């Protein structure tokens, strides 16, 4: 295995036989080395195989600026997130999360803190991802003795959610606001507080995530089953009435018209979360 590029003393890239590129980290792995020389395998600490070429290029640029110890911690955070959540994460998280944590640490050392305006919503709607964010703060503090505020656990959670849903940061923030507003409509309509640890609440929030994506993308379910919606509407009149309020709200705020199939699924989820 030969060096293709020297990024810095601790980072190199190599090309595999099939043409794919690996980014390899190891303390001093590239010291006084040149492209074409053999890789010192005993110095390899981390290997990153990023399939997207632009992501790989951005990652290599970032590694010129980021300390190796930080990259090791970020990799541990990402692997922990994958294990705990049991989900695939878009590989762009290696760039976005590394860049964010590096900048957050620099800001903190300068006494500059940024408040997370959606911290409450993130804690309520994305409990698993937020717990990963809290764990990340522990890992950062343990390694660097830098105690980042809880707001940063929320930002880290958002980066993880982005990677789960293949969304940009701004889109995920908008989706989070959207979900919270829909939940508020349901709460006020039924004058209830939800059991936020219940399975039906989790299912409702999950449904709203993908529902919000469709609203922001301007897409719909392919089918429009009028007959089934009419049946559900008659059976669960109060949930259907709440769905009508949501329909009016979404039309007014986002100029998106819900189909009967979307209203069908929304009504079913509302009925479950309110009455079970």
Quick summary:
With 276 residues, the protein is of the alpha+beta class. Helix content is 62%, strand content 7%. A four-stranded antiparallel β-sheet has the order 1-2-3-4.
Characterization of the model:
The chain is an alpha+beta fold and 276 residues long. It has 3 domains: 1-49, CAT RNA-binding domain (Transcription Regulation, Sacy, Chain A, Roll); 53-166, Orthogonal Bundle (PTS-regulatory domain, PRD), CATH 1.10.1790.10; 179-275, PRD domain (PTS-regulatory domain, PRD, Orthogonal Bundle). It contains 11 helices and 4 strands. A 4-stranded antiparallel β-sheet has the order 1-2-3-4. A hairpin with a 2-residue loop joins strand 1 (3-8) and strand 2 (11-15). Helix 2 runs antiparallel to helix 5, helix 3 (93-109) runs antiparallel to helix 6 and helix 6 (150-165) packs across helix 7 (169-190). The radius of gyration is 23 Å and the shape is elongated. The relative contact order is 0.08.
């Amino acid at each position: 295995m030969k060096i293709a590029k020297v990024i810095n003393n601790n980072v190199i890239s190599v090309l595999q036989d099939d043409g794919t590129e690996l980014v390899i980290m190891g303390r001093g792995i590239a010291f006084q080395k040149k492209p074409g020389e053999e890789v010192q395998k005993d110095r390899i600490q981390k290997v990153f195989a990023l399939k997207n070429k632009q992501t790989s290029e951005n990652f290599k640029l970032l590694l010129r600026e980021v300390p190796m110890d930080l990259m090791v911690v970020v990799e541990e955070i990402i692997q922990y997130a994958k294990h705990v959540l049991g989900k695939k994460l878009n590989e762009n998280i290696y760039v976005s999360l590394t860049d964010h944590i590096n900048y957050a640490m620099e800001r903190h050392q300068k006494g500059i803190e940024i408040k997370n305006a959606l911290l409450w919503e993130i804690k309520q709607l994305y409990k698993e991802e937020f717990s990963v964010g809290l764990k990340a703060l522990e890992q950062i503090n343990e390694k660097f003795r830098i105690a980042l505020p809880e707001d940063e656990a929320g930002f880290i959670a958002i980066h993880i959610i982005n990677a789960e849903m293949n969304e940009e940061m701004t889109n995920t923030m908008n989706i989070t606001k959207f979900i919270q507003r829909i939940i508020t409509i349901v709460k006020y309509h039924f004058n209830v507080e939800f059991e936020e640890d219940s399975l039906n609440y989790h299912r409702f929030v999950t449904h709203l995530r993908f529902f919000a994506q469709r609203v922001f993308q301007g897409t719909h379910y392919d089918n429009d089953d009028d007959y089934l919606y009419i049946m559900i509407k008659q059976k669960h009149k109060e949930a259907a009435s709440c769905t009508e309020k949501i329909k009016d709200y979404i039309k007014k705020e986002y100029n998106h018209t819900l189909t009967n199939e979307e209203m069908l699924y929304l009504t079913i989820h509302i009925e479950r979360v309110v009455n079970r």
